[in-house]
Amino acid sequence: MSQHGQSFMRGTLVLSVAAFINRILGFISGMYIARVLGAEGIGILMMAHPLVPLVITITELGLPVAISKLVAEAHARGERMKVRRILHVSLAVTGVLSVALTTISLLGSEWIASILLSDQRAYYAMLAITPIAPIVAVSAVLKGYFRGMQQMKTIAASDLLEHTVQIACVLALVHLLLPYGVAYAAAGAMAASVVSEAISLLFLVTSYKLYGESKMPGETWASHLKQGRSTLGELLQIGLPTTGHGVIHSLYSTFQPLLITTSLALAGIGTALATKQFGQLAGYAFPLLFMPSFITQSLSTALIPAIGEASANKNSLLIHERMNQAMILGLLIGAPATVILYEWATPLTTLVYNAPEAGLLLKILAPMFFLHYFDAPLHAILLGLGRAKATLWNYVIATVFKGVSIFVFGSQFGIIGVAYGIGIGIVMQTLLNFFSISSSIGFYWSIRPYVKVGICMMLMVICGHWTYNYVASHGMPQLWCVITSIVCSLFLYFAALVLTGTLNWKSTRHRFSIPW
């Protein structure tokens, strides 16, 4: 394997491990917040948050992706001055935009709250999170630089620091402000995110000062900006298409709480109960559903350049080989995750959040969410093939379809209808990406592994159900009932994979050695 390939694999592995640890830390933090604030407080948090991603997306202009690409190219050619110019121009653009938009958001906060917030108690939380936009925007630029320089350990360390500080701040601020009411406690949780992002940014700036490109003779900010028009053009040429997807996603996320609570109101559900039910869905069910997907997300990061390289060399055999690798990994990860989230839905939400009523929502979404584990690799394949516009239009169509489904089903069947509407949107998104790839280069796969995994899933369900009932009938506490039954079912699942020849060490090492 080449040195470049080894470096790429090491970077991917470092980010994957960091992503796993961060997912655990974030889950712990979310579990604490959910238990302390309850479903109503979580609903307030979810309502206050969506405006910020929109501001961040607009200020970033897709530059982090463009920065990593252009910095890597300039660094490979030894163009140190261009590397620094890319960074300076990007910081200037994101800094000005983020400060301007954040100022507008703060000045117009009351007007924005009157439009977007169906529960005005979320106003303080919205104010608390708004200052995070310029911090995140500048951090994203620096992370783009470090990716381009292949310094993945710096990014991983900053992410770990951020999540560690966030947990400490959440524990302190929520505990301090809870006596004043759930609205102030929610604002404290949001403020904790701002503090942790600021500490992470400080770490990135310090790392750049220590390990970044040294200053060139006669170099100034003014000189970079005067000569930076062509550099800005290069950045925007790559960044703007990426921004379109992010803006639509952020716009939808901004209006989704209002859409859901409005549909629930049409179903005859009051504001307080609607906020509580939204909190159960967004704050309880979603974190559990997204928990296992960090592996497919890490694979997707590696898959884009892998598919792009094979496509540039017109090696269709290698493209399909890597596509098959990605889909098999999504299958092997998604299958047991779906079984666990469906079969142990109510025990999990009871143990983690003390909210057994959220178990039904998790059970509804788990089977449809199974396709999500394929969607991230499919999206990456399309980007690697240079079909960014296809991913954008697929997302637009799926989002519109999801929004209509949420409104129609939610207004008729309440929060259960909302869950089905969201699930339908996930299915639509995955199918559209699949059809786009099929129409572009075809999609060839062997059905045998999917049949074998399906059989293994059924064995896992039977084993888990029987084991849980058996240990529960002998008076074992629920925590140990869940742990024992999940461990036994997972053992049977992987044993069945090995016995059916679906999974073995030699074939797995060969199968995943290329993209990883």
Notes on the protein architecture:
- The chain is mainly α and 516 residues long.
- The chain has 22 helices and no strands.
- It has helices at 3-48, 51-60, 63-76, 80-107, 109-116, 123-129, 132-148, 152-177, 182-211, 221-226, 229-266, 271-290, 294-312, 316-343, 345-353, 359-369, 372-384, 388-413, 415-441, 448-473, 478-499, 505-511.
- The longest helix is centred in the first third of the chain and has 46 residues, at 3-48.
- The chain starts with a helix and ends in a 5-residue tail after the last helix.
Task: Name its key features.
single chain; 516 residues; mainly alpha; 85% helix; 0% strand; disordered N terminus; disordered C terminus
List the helices and strands and how they pair.
Blueprint (H helix, E strand, L loop, with lengths): L2 H46 L2 H10 L2 H14 L3 H28 L1 H8 L6 H7 L2 H17 L3 H26 L4 H30 L9 H6 L2 H38 L4 H20 L3 H19 L3 H28 L1 H9 L5 H11 L2 H13 L3 H26 L1 H27 L6 H26 L4 H22 L5 H7 L5
Class based on secondary structure composition and strand pairing: mainly alpha
How many helical elements?
22
Mean pLDDT: 80
Q: In sequence order, what are the helices and strands, one letter per element? A: HHHHHHHHHHHHHHHHHHHHHH
